[in-house]
Amino acid sequence: MTPSPPTLATNPSQTLPIIRHLDAGWTVAAVEGSGVPAEVRGSIVPATVPGAVHTDLLAAGLIPDPYLDSNERLLAWIGLADWRYTTTFVWQPADATNTELNFAGLDTVADIELNGRPVGHTRNMHRSYRFDVRALLHPGLNELSVTFRSPIRQADAASLELGYRPHVNHHPYNAIRKMACGFGWDWGIDTSSSGIWRPVTLESWSTARLSTVRPIATVDGTDGVITVHVDVARASDAPVTVAASVAGINTEIDLAAGESHAELSLRIADIELWWPRGYGEQPLYDLEVTLVSGHATIDTASRRIGFRTVEFDTTPDAAGTPFTIVINGQPVFVRGANWIPDDAFPHRVDRARYLDRLQQAEFANINLLRIWGGGIFESDDFYELCDERGMLTWQDFLLACAAYSEEQPMWTEMEAEAREAVTRLASHPSLVVLNGNNENIWGYEDWNWKLRLDGKTWGAGYYYELFPAIVAELAPHIGYTPGSPFSPAVDGDVDAHVPNDQAHGTMHIWDIWNQRDYTNYLEYTPRFVAEFGWQGPPTWSTMTESISDAPLTPESPGMVVHQKAALGNAKLTDGLLAHFALPNTIEDWHWAMSLNQANAISTAIDHLRSLQPHCMGSIVWQLNDCWPVTSWAAVDGYGRPKPLLYALRHAYADRLLTLQQRDGAFAAVAVNDSAETWTGTLTVHRLSFAGEVLAEHTQHVTLAPRSTATVPLPASVASATDAAVELLQAELSGVRGHRFFAEPRDTGLAAPELETSLQRVPGGYRLTVTAHGLVRDLALLIDQVDPAGRVSDMLVTLLPGEHVDFDITSESDLTVTDLANPLVLRSANQLVALG
């Protein structure tokens, strides 16, 4: 049964704009595309708005789930077809003089018609569009259609029109303004989808409305100053008043006929500063803006703002050029992760899902998320949650791993999307970095682009002229960097240092994953690392739910489709063999690669944090995934935490104790990233695997807040008698750090001897595991027995006689036998025993 179209009429007594959501009654149909299957060709399919072609066809049962098995390849025809979305609605004219049709997001090249007459043509997924349609509406039933052109064909055609420019992957995504990873990435599915991906509304209003509201919150001594920039769209020359209020402070300004911009200033005494998580509280102030005509309020807007200052310390020093983010005068060591769209179909990510992901980031002690430039300008829900929780954010402009035309029509599109995004995001105190691009400056210098470009523009005008000018104009309280990685300019010379120079600014470390063992992270002494990572499979339950290969192997057909990195499996193998032998079963392979990923990133982060304050940032690639895939993520595409998330929790803890090489010998490095002094007796033991103390060093240490201390160790402690059966253990006030003298495969780790007991607790269970011999990297892979389960910790090293409690959140009926299964209760010992 087809629902009746909604009746849309203006209430004459209403003075505020009337906004109607056009989210009902949509259908979608293929209108062109030779590869469209017979069962889809000619079909009119119910559609969801916001939505996408793939998810509509999936809901209708016309295609299999693109996330499963090899279905991605079977569905390639979708991106080669044109698609038309259609709905009808009933409208009755009333007193409003203006009626506008608003699209918050169209993906991507689209023609809009109302009652068979053209409304507009769009070419940018990253912009919203507003059209005056009063003259096209008529009383009664109206028909609205949006026809999307094949994104693959459009990108190919635009590439020819603009001229080839280098890019990664197999589609020229840099030729149109569509989410780059929508065409696939080295972790992403190639959907090349189309659709109305953000809401559609019809808005009726008279006299005037608020077009944009852009508050800029700054700090002046102990006062907060808010400058509210307001643009007003007018339907008449009637005078209007713009008023603003926050924290009991009010101000207003009159706009005479013809005036459309207002700038209001409010000063609040003794404000509470907004701080990043771990540095203080996150007070937010409610700002209300009203538009008044005569005695009637004709429009309103609200924002939640916070007061904080942002600076980048790039003052050259003897070691080069630092990059330190300074909030409210406090240097912040960034414990970060990169963020990609959380679903290949972003419309499916709601506020609850954002919250779940942010809570996982907090669990991992992350304090900054970098929103990567091949995705989207993230939603208001995402930024509001980050504001509330003190999660710093870094938003790339949406250019990634490619050269971009600076000619028309690309320049105009870039400017329009950048202005809209910065205006929308400017009020969020969590946003502290706006970044020009991902890896494009680096690519231009080091990836042979200059030869391939043959003199064509490549994006420099955006990074060094357009974007910084827009940020300076619209969001001067947010820091700007031209790219990631980048080396700060010297006396205005942006080419003074090559990009990705570890001595200057930010860098990305990818030669380790691609070419070398992860122990080589220890060779780097960077100032700030904005990307580095190591691959691992998704959790077992996600892998087996999404791939039904029989037998399932690392190289079986579905597994290969879900491994997007070039030579990815070979790199996984190469990266494992220095540490463990290659297992022969898929269960052991899965555990070995998951553990190796966690150990690789722990090695890097421990090292980077030990270099503080020389190094002031670690942003691991990546927090999340957009579908079930082998990738660098800590949380897989079904939202389940991988062992890497627990490795991040340990490595990013406020207080870290790590054993590092210094001047050819081991030293204990204590990192205190808390607000409290850390003092106590540091004890370092050289131990046998049986737990016998072979040598000891003790020393009283005191660490001020946000500081590090390095304690050299005597040779008697730092040098092993038999590297295969000895380790170092450091302890300070209950915080531990371990260092083994040899790689696991070269040690005498024995099969684990574990005693387990289980008890019911509120919300789930507590599994107590006692070790009767040394156990390295003990992990409870709870998803193997309960895919919805969660566990409090993983990757725990126990000496003989020690125990650990794993708190399990689960609604399943679990037994100690389930949890003590060697495929569930895992350790490095098992992998050594296999060798």
Automatic annotation (TrEMBL):
Cellular location(s): Secreted
Any matching Pfam family: Ig_mannosidase
Enzyme Commission designation: 3.2.1.25
Record keywords: Glycoprotein, Glycosidase, Hydrolase, Secreted
The Beta-mannosidase Ig-fold domain, residue ranges: 749-829
InterPro entries: Beta-gal/glucu_dom_sf, Beta-mannosidase-like_N2, Beta-mannosidase_GH2, Beta-mannosidase_Ig, Galactose-bd-like_sf, GH, Ig-like_fold, Ig-like_GH2
Gene3D superfamilies: Galactose-binding domain-like, Glycosidases, Immunoglobulins
UniProt keyword Transmembrane helix, yes or no: no
Entry keyword Glycoprotein: yes
MF annotations from Gene Ontology: beta-mannosidase activity
One GO cellular component term noted in the UniProt record for this chain: extracellular region
Pathway listed: Glycan metabolism; N-glycan degradation
The Beta-mannosidase-like galactose-binding domain, residue ranges: 35-198
Main location class: secreted
Top-level class of the enzyme under EC nomenclature: hydrolase
Superkingdom as given in the UniProt entry: Bacteria
Domain Mannosidase Ig/CBM-like: 667-711
Reactions the enzyme catalyzes: Hydrolysis of terminal, non-reducing beta-D-mannose residues in beta-D-mannosides
One BP annotation, GO: glycoprotein catabolic process
Glycoside hydrolase family 2 immunoglobulin-like beta-sandwich domain sequence ranges: 211-308
Subunit structure: Homodimer.
Similarity field: Belongs to the glycosyl hydrolase 2 family. Beta-mannosidase B subfamily.
Protein name: Beta-mannosidase B
Organism for this UniProt entry: Cryobacterium frigoriphilum
